[in-house]
Amino acid sequence: MDRKLLDHQSVLDLLPERKATGHKGDFGRLLLLCGSRGFTGAAYLAAMGALRCGAGLVYLGVPESIYAIEAVKLHEPVVFPLPDQGGMLDASAAVEISRRLERTDAVLIGCGLGQSDGVRSVVQTVLKQAKCPVVLDADGINVLSAHKDVLRGRQYPTILTPHEGEFVRFGGRIGKDRPSSAGLYARQWNCILVLKGHDTCVTDGHTVYRNTTGNPGMATGGSGDVLAGMIVGLLGQGLKPLDAAACGVWLHGAAGDLCARELGQYAMLPTDMLSRLPRLLK
Q1: Per-domain boundaries in the chain
Q2: What is the tens place of the pLDDT at every residue in 177-206?
Q3: Is 111 in contact with 143 (CB distance < 8 Å)?
Q4: 28-149+214-272 sits in which CATH class?
């Protein structure tokens, strides 16, 4: 595999130009399906991660039982309720989701969704019907552990963002050469893989980016939700899927490094990373 590294300038060079005549529809129409009862923060962090990376329009679908919470917390995204059962998405939510997929440039599904038959049905619907790139994160990955074949049938890019535990549950094996293990998996399952952790690697099976940013202070709940939102935000603006994933990982880690220097690794929070992103995107 071709092995590459990114730096700040190369990331900025990959970002799309913001034309003077541009409008919000030019910078990505995104659909995010996130959150469940008890995991309202995941939806918030993912949506704000997408917006902080320049997304034009973010539509956030959440279970009806947490809609009021998200609508009060979030002002910039368009938040809408979906049918739920037990605080998690119900299979009947697929009707509204299918309608919205018709005008979507990229989808994120999984952050804080929980695991149920309804969630599994919704995830499968998105992967089968979305005619655009899909980022599959967290519980979106977990509910498909026994149904991975849906990935091979996708004609559009799918980006998986597992940490090592999720990767193993999804059938992956980590050998001595972590990038090679990730590359083999990406080729086998027709996806772009973001294998998170120390020395995060991003690969489509042919090229691998090894990340040089980030620190242990980022190992806290919600950090991965911010990253998933950032990746889908970059996808919606037209970056190639591998580039969007690699740039998102680099920027996420660099924001974490700014937090560590200014706040310390013990005190930093995922919301602090969101607040540092503007300094990296000038």
Answers
A1: 28-149+214-272
A2: 999 999 999 999 999 999 999 889 999 999
A3: no
A4: alpha beta
